[in-house]
Amino acid sequence: MAKLIDCPKGEQDLSALYLAGELPEAEAQAFEKHYFECESCWQDVQRGSELRATLGNSAVASAAPHAAAIRRARSWLPLAAAAAIAFVGIGVWQLTRQSAVESSPAVMRSSVVDVLALEVSGGPQGSVDVAWASHSEASSYRVQVLGSDGLGAWKKEVSETHLKIVPGDVAPSGKQMQIQVEALDAMGQVVATSERIPLPRR
Amino acid sequence: MGSSRYTSDQDGGAPGAPEPADLDGFRDRLRLFAARRLGDWTAAEDVAQEALRRALEALRDGRIESPSALPGFLFQTALNICMHRGRSAGRERKALQRFAGPSDEQGDVAQNPLHTLISSERQSAVRQALGRLEPDEREVLELTYRDELASGEIGGRLGLTAGAVRVRRHRAIRRLGELLGVTKRGERELKE
Questions:
Q1: In this structure, what DSSP letter does residue A157 have?
Q2: Distance (Å, whole) CA B123 – CA B133
Q3: How many other C-beta atoms can be found within 10 angstroms of the C-beta atom of residue A127?
Q4: Which domain holds residue A128?
Q5: In CATH, what number is assigned to the domain containing residue A134?
Q6: Which of A172, B40, B114, B185 is the most buried (most CB within 10 A)?
Q7: The predicted structure's pLDDT at residue A2
Q8: Cβ–Cβ below 8 Å for A58 and B123
Q9: Would you tell me which residues 97-156 of chain A have a C-beta closer than 8 angstroms to some C-beta of chain B?
Q10: Is residue B169 a contact partner of residue B141, using CB atoms and an 8 Å limit?
Q11: With a CB-CB cutoff of 8 Å, which residues 136-155 of chain B face chain A?
């Protein structure tokens, strides 16, 4: 397989972004995997974490779902409050116009969802192994394969935190496809979602 | 094919089975890895300890055949332990919330346990080493790690290109490592 990115030596923004918690989760995990193998990048991460701690920041920004959810909730709070007021206002206005109002699941869905760590690797005979972190509020997980246009090409709901996709499951399209996992609570609401990760080509 | 966008430049490492002593260099990596995921320094220490214990067991059983397989084994083991702990912690948190009612989340964040990841002695050594850097080197490190600015933004302030900022930062980090008595593998050989 051709390398997508070689060792990011010199691209020091990567370790700084990683430590500041600014890399998307999938990128952060890929970089972690890399620095376990690469002494040079690990040295950059180590010096960076020491510098952050010395200069008044936490050595590494937490990606723990609880902390991340609080960070997001804080940043979304004013917007969420405004949205709630607008939502109530629109609802009252619509009720005066018509007797029956259908509630939209998209509107009911919470805008604060956690990030789900996702690991995708090629298995034997063209299969793909997918594993993800469990979420404390999840009753099930929806695994979706998306085409290059972002439309769903295949999906499956499971209760485990891993899945093997065999060649017969997804028809080969010749184009790069992506995989995404969503954690669903007992009401079917999305409580966490992963980044979209490219599906290994078979 | 792996899932990583990043690939190792150390593929096909040295021949022969890895030694238990090879595990030593991974302890801090495991701690930082787990600390980021769990947001808790004590829990991260436990994860590192458990991952090293499992790796030692695997080495003794001959399940890790080459040195190049060791980092991947440790990464995956630590990831699995973190996932398991995350699951347990979620259940625990829910149970605590049921008994104690809503927690003071702002307080939790203010007392961020990751602030203790680097010891005060080490921070003091880093502060001293920073003081011995050239002013332009120190400035670029402060703008990156204190102010969390990207290379482009730093370049805008200092009248440099983003590339020049990266080069300056790379040089500063290398120099800082030398002052702290930590030189990168390979650089020490070049100096000798």
A1: E
A2: 15
A3: 16
A4: 114-198
A5: 2.60.40.10
A6: B114
A7: 31
A8: no
A9: 117, 119-122, 133-137
A10: yes
A11: 141-142, 144-146, 148, 150-151
| CATH architecture designation of domain B20-105 | Orthogonal Bundle (1.10)
My answer on whether A118 and A193 are in the same domain is yes
Rounded to whole angstroms, the Cα distance separating B133 from B125 reads 13
Name A146's bridge partners: A152, A178
Which ipTM value was assigned to this complex?
A: 0.77
In sequence order, what are the beta bridge partners of A115? A193
Question: Mind listing the pLDDT tens digit for each residue in A168-186?
Answer: 887 766 777 888 888 887 7
pTM of the model: 0.57
- Class of CATH domain B118-183: mainly alpha
Q: Which of residues 11-40 of B touch A (CB under 8 A)?
A: 26, 28-29, 32-33, 35-40
Q: pLDDT (tens digit, 0 to 9) for every residue of chain B, 192 residues total?
A: 333 334 344 444 445 667 777 888 899 999 999 989 888 888 899 999 999 999 999 988 888 888 888 999 999 999 999 988 876 666 666 665 555 544 444 334 334 555 556 888 889 999 999 999 999 999 999 999 999 999 999 999 999 999 999 989 989 999 999 999 886 444 433 232
* Tokens linked to A175: 């184009």
Can you tell me the distance from the alpha carbon of A137 to that of A183, in angstroms, rounded to the nearest whole number?
A: 8
* Radius of gyration of chain B from its Cα atoms, rounded to whole angstroms: 21
Q: pLDDT by residue (tens digit) across A131-169?
A: 888 877 788 888 988 876 667 778 888 888 888 888 888
Give strand pairing partners of A179.
Answer: A145, A197
- Structural domain includes residue A2: no
Question: Could you tell me if A157 and A83 lie in one domain?
Answer: no
Query: What's the total number of domains in chain A?
Result: 3
What number of residues does chain B have? 192
Residue A125 lies inside a defined structural domain of this protein: yes
Shared domain for A123 and A182, answered yes or no, is yes
Q: CB A30 to CB B4 under 8 A?
A: yes
SS3 B7: coil
CA distance B162 to A76: 31
- Residue A53's CB: how many other CB atoms inside 10 A? 24
Place of tokens 């952060």: A28
Coarse DSSP helix, strand, coil percentages of chain A, rounded to the nearest 5 percent: 40, 25, 40
